[in-house]
Amino acid sequence: MDGESACGRVECLIKTTYNTTSIMIKKPSLILLYIFSIFNSCQKKSEQNKSSENVIVFKDKLGHSLSKNDLQNTTGKVNYEIMDNQNTNATADQLHKEARQLGQSGKYDLAITKLQEAIKIQPDWAYPTYDLAFTYLLKGDFESALKFYKRTDELAPKGFFTTKAALYTLEGEQSGKFPKGLYLAYLQIEWTDNKEQKLEIAKTLTDKVPDFAPAWKELSNLLNGNAERLKAIEQGLSKNPDADTAGMLKINKAILLNNVGKGEEAKNLLGNLIFSADATTATIEMAKFTLKSIS
């Protein structure tokens, strides 16, 4: 009998022997001794599990700490639609859905009209504003795209889909740091399913625009070999990346560090990211999941 099945049978055994004669109680029988030994084993196992759950896996200089129990239900997934859709006006929601269908059909002007109507009904809802920015981007109206990405960021300052990277890139385009159309070119990496094409685009972008951090992040994911990947990650981190890009670069770096036996360094990197005031919701959740996995 294993420990778990024994624990599950304690209650049944106790009920069976509850009406034992007084003689047997005064002189404990083998069955009672067996029950007590199982009970003690289960109690110790429960205490060990509880102790294991409360093990601190990270603690910083400010006293912030994370235990295994804190990370237990972390999945690393963030569904912005669910997060942002709890009190959505039904009419605004319908207009938003219609706009997305129009946008997918290439009917951008009609999509913009629907999105503007949805925003007018519910101006504090980030999703239609985000899609409005993206639709202007697809039309090549980068100024309007930047305007509404800024508005999305105001509505969801802890991050909303790719808003942080879009702002970083479009602001760079506007200031002359990056060439016009860079963000659309960068999105081609996401839009293609061919890994070789992804790698080719990422390499081209890092060669032509070496100060563009998101391209280094993508390149680090596509390269083979820890040394090459780590070099790309360090390049990205040195380019003053946006909060989302910086977070993902640090998470990828932590995974590589753990792979080469530097587990404590990896944990510290992830823990500090989780408690960083600049970290986005997505990177915090992914960092928690990664920390849970390597702990």
> Residue-averaged pLDDT, rounded?
84
Going across the biggest sheet, name each strand in turn.
1-2
Q: Rounded to an integer, what's the Rg over CA atoms?
A: 27 Å
Distance between the termini: 30 Å
Amount of helix: over 70%
Features:
Serine Threonine Protein Phosphatase 5, Tetratricopeptide repeat; TPR repeat; TPR-like_helical_dom_sf; 295 residues; mainly alpha; TPR_rpt
How would you describe this protein?
- With 295 residues, the protein is mainly alpha-helical.
- It has three domains: 3-53; 57-85 and 179-295, Serine Threonine Protein Phosphatase 5, Tetratricopeptide repeat (Alpha Horseshoe), CATH 1.25.40; 87-157, Alpha Horseshoe (Serine Threonine Protein Phosphatase 5, Tetratricopeptide repeat), CATH 1.25.40.
- The protein is 71% helix and 2% strand.
- The chain contains 16 helices and two strands.
- It has helices spanning 3-17, 22-26, 30-53, 80-84, 90-104, 108-121, 126-139, 142-155, 163-175, 182-191, 195-208, 213-222, 226-237, 243-259, 263-274, 281-294; strands at residues 56-59, 65-67.
- Strands 1-2 form a two-stranded antiparallel sheet.
- Helix 6 (108-121) packs antiparallel against helix 7 (126-139), helix 14 (243-259) runs antiparallel to helix 15 (263-274) and helix 15 (263-274) packs antiparallel against helix 16 (281-294).
- The longest helix is centred in the N-terminal third of the chain and has 24 residues, at 30-53.
- The protein is globular and about 55 Å long.
- The relative contact order is 0.08.
- Residues 1-36 have low confidence and may be disordered.
